[in-house]
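Students often ask why we bother encoding 3D structure as a string. The short answer is that it lets us treat folding as translation between two languages. Here is a chain of 108 residues written in the first language.
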Amino acid sequence: MSTGVRRPASPPTAGSTVADRGDESGPDGELGAAIERALNDAIAGVFAQHEQSMVTKWVMLAETMDGAGERGLWPMTSDGVQAWDTVGMLSHALHLQQAQVFADMLGD
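And here it is in the second language, the structure alphabet:
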């Protein structure tokens, strides 16, 4: 069963990508499935409570740091999200952030 969560069992080291890693548990392992279930439940619960709406898909990007100070970047999506959905959602979020930065600069 594919979890749809695309990231390594542990964060990649600086300069590496998810595709560079060959962790045994991989994106379809138990860790990936557990993280996806927890995120799906949390995201759906928050939107149901506060927005009274249903989440149809989500994209998340998380930076992590392990005990040795190594940072990793975990791109994660809900199950069934296609690559073009991820690119489109992240691009839209980027444009929103850029517009806010521009508006803040004009306001100063």
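Translate back mentally: Residues 83-107 form the longest helix (25 residues). Keep this in mind for the problem set.
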